[in-house]
From TrEMBL:
Stretches assigned to the Multidrug resistance protein MdtA-like beta-barrel domain: 217-307
Name of the protein this chain belongs to: Efflux transporter, RND family, MFP subunit
Organism of this sequence: Desulfococcus multivorans DSM 2059
Pfam families from the UniProt entry: Beta-barrel_RND (PF25944), BSH_RND (PF25917), HH_MFP_RND (PF25876), RND-MFP_C (PF25967)
Residue ranges of every copy of the Multidrug resistance protein MdtA-like C-terminal permuted SH3 domain listed in the record: 312-371
GO MF, one annotated term: transmembrane transporter activity
Similarity comment: family membership: Belongs to the membrane fusion protein (MFP) (TC 8.A.1) family.
CC terms in the record's Gene Ontology section: plasma membrane
Gene Ontology biological-process entries: response to antibiotic
Amino acid sequence: MQLNKNGYEPSAWTRTLTVLSALFLLWGCGKGYGEQQAAPPPPPEVVTVTVTPRKIELTTELPGRTSAYRVAEIRPQVNGIIQKRQFREGSDVKAGQLLYQIDPAPFQVALDSARASLGKAQANLPSIRSRVERYTELLVDKAISRQDYDDAVSAVDQAKAEIEYWKTQVAAARINLGYAQVNAPISGRIGRSNVTDGALVTAYQPLALATIQQLDPIYVDVTQSSAELLRLKRNLETGRLSADRENGKAVRIVMEDGSPYPLEGKLQFREVTVDPATGSYTVRIVVPNPEHLLLPGMFVRALVQEGIAEAAILVPQQGVSRNPKGEAVALIVDDVETVRQRILILNRAIGDQWLVASGLSAGDRLIIEGMMNVRPGSVVKAISRDALTVDGDPPHANRPSGEK
């Protein structure tokens, strides 16, 4: 027999109530636990973007190198000794500016000699003409023979020819004297000098005295695959791309350090032949270069416009993956909140987005977050990316389940 704390034995009725209360509590707890286990889990949350076609400009990035707009190699046109170099290496020169002075003394002497000979020939002509006039009168009276008269007339013609000869000699001597001054044929930046004062130079020698390059504007020569050209023409013919009549020849330049060049170039021409070794052809672009940021031989990239895509589909790259076959796949949410898989054909990457050629349509909801928690056929709760908080991290309630 057990006694309570007051020393009395509990009655049978009290014991019965205690047992029934314990059983009721156990039954109630078991029922609540079973109902909690039977409740279905909520569908996983995913973040989606709605596919919206838009008009974009398609460009092709082509590698190339810069080259001078005009190049002039300075060579002497007469033999002589360099007296003085008249420019500073690496400076800008103007067309007609004196670059080198060749010793002019021998050319001045040749000019003076030719002038003297011309004067002598011109001085002989009047006397020969007077002789012809006298012989004409004597011939009438038959005081001289016909042969003497013909010789006098021929002497006049010879004197005139001699005068013309010495005139050309004077002109040639004057030209050679002018060639003693080596002037710049074009405006531009001149490089280092290959000769110094006192050097002996010869006419049209293989070694150039210096080289002038015009840097403003400057050429950018890029190469493009002939297959790309055919694809571009086909897209224009089928209407997938439309030509931009206003800005179709505008070209943007990216410098070799990745920074954009501030001024736009202009497409000048495409080569008419394809290099059989590489299957590519050259595209030449003219770029303004007033600050001389671009120098000949620099590696650059040119963004050449292909055309305008009126209804292009761009999607974030994070929403596209690859299946075991290497095909591009994406998951979308249909009208009944069910996940569907689409196989895509991608055109190219534009920034952090893919340009989709086929596989998606306007209005499709593409899953970009939460893809690891769902599979095709799963029912999900789709949350539009536009509905998420843009300032800072989105709240946990808006995040797909399983995302941190």
